Amino acid sequence: MGVSRRHIAIFGAAGLVAAAALAGVAALASADPGGPPGPAAALSATTPPPTGVVPSSRATPSTPVPTPKKTTGCGRRATVSPTVRTTDVEVGGRVAGYGQEGDTDPLPTVIAARPAGGSWLAWLGTDGRVHLGRLDCDDRLTGKPTTFTGIDLQDVQADSGGGVLLLTRRGSCGSGPLCGGASSPCNTMHMIRFDDSGHQVWERQVTNLTGGRSGYDDGARFVWWYQHHGRLATDGRNYAAYFGVAITVQNGRCVDIHEGDRMQVVNAKGALVPGQGDDFEVGCSHSWTARIVWDPRTKHYAMVCATDNGCRIARPSPYRTVAAGTCDGTLFGGDLVLARTRGYWTAWSQGGKVRLDHFTTGATDKTVRTAAASSHPHLVTLGTGRMLLAWASGSGLAAQVYDSGTGKVAGARFTIGVQDHNYQALKAYPDGSAAYPAAGRTSTSIRVARVLPLA
User: 255: which of 66, 182, 191, 297 is 20 to 30 A away, CA to CA?
Assistant: First the structure.
């Protein structure tokens, strides 16, 4: 059952209301009153968040993130037409399954390019651990994987000295009480810095549950049962996490739990960078499919969300509409990439039809209505001046290359022969290729599909 068809009960202090979930997250938390969006929707850049926010837990001792070095990576041979290479990676333990691919379900696997060549591949095991392994230029596992405590996996990004994982851990709800509805586990989101051997250097919580604050305390920002997926981006020294978050707001003698998104920046030593300029406590609300990219041309992080606040694809904090949508349960964001010259392209879907929209600071200035029929498109940079759109089609993915300047189709549609997942991402590589981690042939393997560079 897909998330767009799911119905969720919405509880309020005054009673129980049933409503269809908008993209699986437009429904309020179980303690949120029915009717129009309440306090959470007002928590944007123009309205301060509830008071009482305290810093996250201290980072453990660290070493700085090295300045990225220029490298050619693996230098895979370019092809005239799109060519896909698929590799089965045996990881030696059971990998979490796809489940129903809902926006509240755990993500099985993520991948990132190593600047020196190869990849970091991370996966969620059925053993309650997040595993991390290094792949060579042929996408073969090398060395022994390392493991980290985590109940959900969000993303991985890499640099010349290692990289950062974004994952979820168990937290504490405290006593509450909720104004209505049933309780659910309160969890935390963390960045985990690892070195080039895959071993942990430091960790930093990017939610705000500490020894003095639990999930059901006023001002808490934590991970609850609903949409919390997130992505990472880096400027080469700092890392930014943009993710869905639960928002606790005092309501008399009880608390309501709302939903929005949050962006936090962490420096090379594992410390939060408050006031960085792009970070915020709450941006879009309600929010789903939060996407982020670092733009070296503007020296800022750019972000988009799908939101029922105006039913649109929007830039957060402050709200700026990129593309207008409809709150009918079929509005989903895809991915966000840099355009060839200035601005960005974002893929999104309404009514099962995929669009590409170009924008710079706010509203779209060009819309491409593609032939793709999907609710969950993927978009990734594919070398200089190109981007790759992919979407579920039959038992695999269909894919189409576009010019990242004009938005025009570049070549014929082709097939990527691995199973799609609604919320997993294609990742770009410095040699102009792109990789996608997918379910393997067995429960202990992962299939890496690589679109080779184009000449």
Answer: 191
